[in-house]
Amino acid sequence: MLIIGIAGGTGCGKTTVVNQIIDSLPEGEVGVISQDSYYNDLSDMPLEERRKTNFDHPQSIDFSLLEEHLKLLKEGHSIKQPVYSFLECNRTGKTVPVHPTKVLIVEGILILTNSLLRKMMDIKIFVHADSDERLIRRLKRDVNERGWNLDETLDKYQSNIKPMHLQFIEPSKEYADIIIPNNKYNTVAVDIVRTIINEKLA
Ligand SMILES: Nc1ncnc2c1ncn2[C@@H]1O[C@H](COP(=O)(O)OP(=O)(O)O)[C@@H](O)[C@H]1O
Ligand SMILES: Nc1ccn([C@@H]2O[C@H](COP(=O)(O)O)[C@@H](O)[C@H]2O)c(=O)n1
Question: Which class of enzymes does this protein belong to (predicted)?
Fold first, then answer.
């Protein structure tokens, strides 16, 4: 199994890049694991409290479970991945089966901050977009899709998102083998990654 890690700040375009990579690849041969599925279980807190959580800090992620799942997949076993709800700010209690594939993409803002995860990755990619671009994209998404209003999103950006980005995410760029500039759609970089994957699948 080839494990590819794709990190980068919120709104940099990780999900978009992942979708572009897997679009033209044979179905069933490439799997995707998102760090978002591994946010800690916060069922012991009311929603109001959960919404105040710093979701940009590494401690908000259940890295042990993510590591265990990657290890199992690498060994050829299937896993039951937790299903996360952004609206509830919690795991739903449901799981989806994920089966081993020849190539596995792991994506998330914090995945390159964890040394055990980094050791499991064959290729480490960091997607870069300028902070103003990312903030604009993030504002649109949080308001349209994730149940936050404009003021809440801007407050979160100042209190958690920006400081955590500077403290944890941006420094993890140094571990990347490839940095993809993504202020504009970058088809050349995506094609290079696809070529590497196709070689593995051949
Ligand atoms: N290069 C780009 N140019 C313009 N918009 C983009 C670009 N890449 C992604 N987007 C848009 O920005 C938003 C966030 O992208 P997404 O891939 O979800 O980022 P991430 O997964 O890193 O948070 C989405 O609405 C997406 O369509
Ligand atoms: N309940 C939650 C949990 C996380 N977030 C934010 O998601 C961002 C990471 O996801 P990306 O798709 O942007 O990589 C992170 O910045 C968290 O603040 C959230 O809004 N609500």
Answer: transferase
How many domains, the chain?
1
Ligand nearest to the CA of 169: 2
The residue nearest atom 27 of ligand 1, judged by CA position, is 16
Asked whether the ipTM of the predicted complex exceeds the cut of 0.90, the reply is: yes
Closest approach atom of ligand 2 to CA 142? 20
- The mean pLDDT of 76-98, rounded to a whole number, is 96
CATH number at residue 194: 3.40.50.300
Model pTM score: 0.96
DSSP 78-147: -EEEEEEETTTTEEEEEEEEE---SEEEEE-TTGGG-HHHHHH-SEEEEEE--HHHHHHHHHHHHHHHSS
**pLDDT tens-digit series, residues 170-201:** 999 999 999 999 999 999 999 999 998 888 77
Residue nearest ligand 1's atom 25 by CA = 137
